From TrEMBL:
Its cofactor is pyridoxal 5'-phosphate. This is DegT/DnrJ/EryC1/StrS family aminotransferase. Belongs to the DegT/DnrJ/EryC1 family. L-glutamine:2-deoxy-scyllo-inosose/scyllo-inosose aminotransferase subfamily. One of its GO terms (molecular function) is transaminase activity. Keywords: Aminotransferase, Pyridoxal phosphate, Transferase. It holds the Pfam family DegT_DnrJ_EryC1. It comes from Streptomyces kunmingensis. It comes from the Bacteria.
């Protein structure tokens, strides 16, 4: 789509740094240069306010990625695109059947009402919970990773959704300040919320997480 729109050498395309490198790779494949934007702390999607700060005469497009079941603020990005003549593209997530989304929402509501010691996701009504992503407070990545190891040891499947932001990968390394991206990469952990989970399995997740909550106090 970038190539079809004439985006190429000499152009810049604003992309989120929090996520997989495929979007930045597509920009490079088109001959343009990726410019990394920070994310919104609640949705993990590209932050329109930071995108606004990055727009310059070389900016040709913005790519928004919907993340974890949150939708990016496409309305604000299209408004920005209309004002500056920018192409606005979206990368979506695979859609789940309605029944599965409803079950995931029910499971997410159960977890959010009972978990402590972690920051639960923003429970916006449009959230489809492609992943149930919490934040582990404390001193950053070592706490999150230690938390994850203990959960796995108790039989609770969990994963780090974004281990390294794209702007820190060797192929795309940039000296940029993206505080929300860095914080999310250090703190986020995806807990199981699959629609097929039983109440007993959900209770195991809650028990395992809450048993660790008292160990995770912010450092002062």
């Amino acid at each position: 789509m970038l190539q079809a729109a004439g985006v190429g050498a000499g152009d810049e395309v604003i992309v989120p740094a929090y996520g997989n490198p495929e979007v930045a790779e597509a920009v490079v494949h088109a001959g343009a240069a990726p410019v990394f934007a920070d994310i919104d702390a609640d949705t993990y999607c590209i932050d329109p306010a930071h995108v606004t700060d990055l727009v310059n005469t070389r900016t040709a497009a913005v790519i928004a990625v919907h993340r974890f079941g949150h939708r990016a603020d496409i309305a604000r990005l299209h408004d920005l695109g209309n004002r500056h003549g920018l192409l606005v593209l979206e990368q979506g997530e695979s859609e789940k059947p309605y029944a599965e989304v409803a079950q995931r929402r029910a499971h997410a509501a159960y977890l959010s009402a009972r978990l402590n010691g972690v920051r639960t996701p923003d429970g916006h009504e449009a959230h489809t919970y492609q992943q149930y992503v919490v934040r582990v407070p404390g001193n950053g990545r070592p706490d999150r990773d230690a938390f994850a190891r203990v959960l796995r040891g108790k039989g609770v499947e969990c994963s780090v959704p974004v281990k390294t932001p794209v702007h820190r990968l060797p192929a795309f390394r940039r000296d940029v300040v993206l505080p929300e991206t860095e914080r999310a990469a250090d703190e986020t952990l995806a807990l199981p919320v699959d629609g097929t989970m039983s109440r007993k399995q959900l209770q195991r997740v809650v028990s395992a997480c809450n048993a660790l909550g008292g160990l995770l106090q912010p450092a002062f």
